[in-house]
Design goal:
elongated, two-stranded antiparallel ribbon, 2 domains, 9 helices, 10 strands, 321 residues, Rossmann fold, alpha/beta
């Protein structure tokens, strides 16, 4: 990727969903998720979210008389000249944030060995972040991606807007099959003008990942460039069943992103060990690329708790601030 010029921004489709277009079961899921999430936000995230993420700068609020110890750089010389005594400018931190939730909806997220698929875990995580932002009166936007930009919703405030985002997460049907992290990162580089907090949720099984490490590194470079302008948190969602094959004899498997079908012998210890070694290689490469991207990272197992890793991340980050 040539980083010397401007980033080419792929156009995202514009969608408008009327409330009556959603099946009743989708609306019911959204309602139940909202009830559960609001309780979690009130009980676990009160104060955490607010203290972890910084405001977007300082805004002028008022003047007051200078007192010894004040920063002389804050003196308003114009008002001081008129009043005949020194006055300084008062500034307040601008607390309002713009939060973008970026969610991978490629076919590899339609996998899970427990209660939640990886994609469902991402939806629950997105709800936690969205309602935390709403509680803090921040703006929230949404980007859904696969190997193309699937759906983009500009950031707005309010509970109704957040409900709309959750409906989109539950109901949107992707056109693409594979995953391209760079596609989503480059799109955000082009469209986000104001510094934002970006939660990038994916299993990071990128379509450029498997064959060539140097080619795979392009998505890490895109994330790094995004992190230079914005506060980026990579939320890596995985399922522990992906890490090892059970011994169940001959099975037919299908790659959800390529539709390739293979018959494998899981009773072969050599094959299972080879499979595990390849997955460790890919995991180590992914972790190395994320470190190169210089973004914060949260690891979530879809077969376990999706709440605790986010709470622990907030606590770690608050300790660094």
């Amino acid at each position: 990727m040539d980083t010397r010029g401007s980033v080419e921004v792929p156009k995202a489709p514009t969608w408008s969903f009327a409330a009556h277009a959603f099946p009743s079961e989708v609306l019911q899921k959204v309602k139940l998720l909202e009830i559960r999430t609001r309780k979690l936000v009130n009980n676990l995230f009160s104060g955490e979210y607010h203290t972890v993420f910084k405001g977007q700068g300082m805004t002028f609020s008022d003047f007051r008389e200078y007192v010894p110890g004040d920063d002389i750089r804050a003196i308003s010389w114009t008002l001081t000249a008129r009043a005949g005594k020194p006055f300084i400018k008062k500034f307040d931190e601008e607390r309002e944030l713009t939060v973008f939730i970026v969610v991978d909806i490629s076919r590899s997220t339609d996998f899970g060995s427990n209660e939640l698929l990886k994609g469902e875990a991402m939806t629950h995580l997105a709800a936690l972040v969205a309602f935390s932002a709403v509680r803090n009166k921040d703006q929230v936007g949404l980007l859904l991606f696969s190997d193309i930009i699937e759906h983009f919703v500009p950031a707005k405030k309010g509970r109704g807007h957040t409900q709309r985002l959750l409906r989109d997460l539950y109901y949107f049907k992707p056109r693409g099959k594979k995953t391209r992290i760079a596609q989503a990162a480059n799109h955000l580089l082009g469209v986000l003008k104001k510094r934002s907090v970006i939660f990038f949720m994916s299993d990071f099984i990128d379509s450029e990942f498997s064959a060539e490490p140097l080619k795979a590194a392009t998505w890490a470079e895109s994330l790094r460039l995004l992190g230079r302008k914005h506060d980026v948190v990579a939320v890596v969602v995985r399922d522990r069943a992906e890490l090892e094959l059970p011994d169940v004899g001959l099975v037919e498997i299908q790659d959800p992103e390529t539709d390739e079908v293979l018959t494998i012998d899981t009773s072969s210890r050599a094959f299972r060990e080879s499979y595990a070694a390849e997955l460790r290689r890919r995991r180590d490469l992914r972790d190395r690329l994320l470190r190169q991207a210089q973004v914060d990272r949260v690891e979530v197992d879809s077969a376990g708790s999706y709440v605790n890793p986010l709470v622990q991340f907030f606590e770690r980050r608050r300790g660094r601030s």
